[in-house]
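#struct-queue
[09:14] JT: dropping the first one here, sequence first, then the structure tokens:
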Amino acid sequence: MVTNIETVYAVGDNAGTKIPKGLLLPRASVLAEAQGKVVAENIIKEIQGQEKTATFNGEGVCYMEVGDGKAAPVRSNFYAQPQPKWEFTPPSPEGFQEKHRFLAERMHAWFG
């Protein structure tokens, strides 16, 4: 039995993270990935005996594919004050290309 746990970390669907208005942060992979990077950095610092300084900024992007080779990037900041902010970009071929670049980057980062 482990009895000397100082910190418990949770990310993604396991974390009931509240945003300023009291609602829960959406359960989206882009947000879970960002949370995971923060947790990993803080665990490394904890192991090294350093101050944990990494924080999750509540920002993410998702892409709404609308057909005809177009997609609409939606950027969000769920921690913005006084309320969350969203930036909707109209669907375009450039948004579609951005979506596929983002997907290729994620696949390479996760699976090599």
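[09:21] JT: and here's the second one, same format:
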Amino acid sequence: MLIEVKVPALAESVPDATLLDWYKQPGDAVSRDEMLIDLETDKVTLEIVAPESGIIKEILRQPGDIVLPDVVLCTIETEGASRAVADKDKDKDKAPRFGPAVRKLVEEHSVNPALVKASGKDGRLTKGDVLAHLEKKQTENALPPTAIKLQPQPEEITDGRLEERVPMTRVRKRTAERLLQAQQQNAILTTFNEVNMESVMNLRSQHANEFEKQYGVRLGYMSVFVKTAVEALKKFPTVNAYVEDDDIVYHGYYDVGVAVGTKRGLVVPILRNAEHMSFSDIESKIRDFAERARDGKLTLDELTGGTFTISNGGIFGSLVSTPILNPPQSAILGMHKIQERPIAESGEIVIRPMMYLALSYDHRVIDGREAVQFLETIREMIEDPSRILLQI
């Protein structure tokens, strides 16, 4: 029987997808659920697998093609394919378990695939696995950043200097479009404050080992800020709202997006119903998001929606910045680097671990007074974490 492999239904906000490299060619035997090709969307990379075992009969779309939902990608002949699949399975352990794109990367950098820890399905190597291996090797050998080239080699231009032209990934392109849209269609202002992190740092230091032992995840600062943001959003519901035509839509729930940087660009996975999550739930989910974001394995649903976003530029050393809204949301909180600074307390100069906070907001929805009070509420809770527990 001849079956068709089609582009799956995509999210409403994702109109199409771009084909990456095929893992199989016409005439190849495939097993059920074996990888066929990756589809890159504006948000994630989707893995298309074989619905049944058989032989690849025909490939109808090529890498680089832009495809819509329900478009036929290839056909698989299932009749009489049992023997071919069985033969393939006999040699399964001998054949490298990775596709053309990974094979090219492995060959370019003379990597022994057996030394790379695979995280893909059925022990398949992913690009993320190889890149992580190269980065680890680079760090261990104390090589300069230019020692390993992970991008295409630059082309020489007429005056002898070098340049390279690399197409934007769809994630990078879509991010650029959304950020430009945010600046053009929103009245964005940013208000700043600073917070003394000493109480949170002491809390973390006091309970870090017990927390990790009990929950199997480290206690970080992000879970504290997520919990704090939820309580502040409850007090200032306009910050959790958005504009739609001539209406302001207020959310009765708190879906907090956490910005994660990847090699393919910025993604913002969503903590659904964060108001019902514990500190350990948040930390576990964020760690899971980060690991799967690295390999492009986040789902469309995990990247869709959100009522408020938190971005932590401090992990990269940023001291202060003005974050840009994530449409259609009306506000985003920016965390920054913790730095010891002299401040005045009770008429004396003391040194405290301080962090600048930034709240960018849509002035069409949120008044300056609300924005300032919202950020002040964040500061008060961070400096006195017991307020989070007591919800005051």
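[09:30] RK: nice, looked through the second one.
[09:31] RK: DSSP finds nine helices and 21 strands in the chain.
[09:31] JT: good to know. The chain has three domains: 1-95, 98-149, 171-390.
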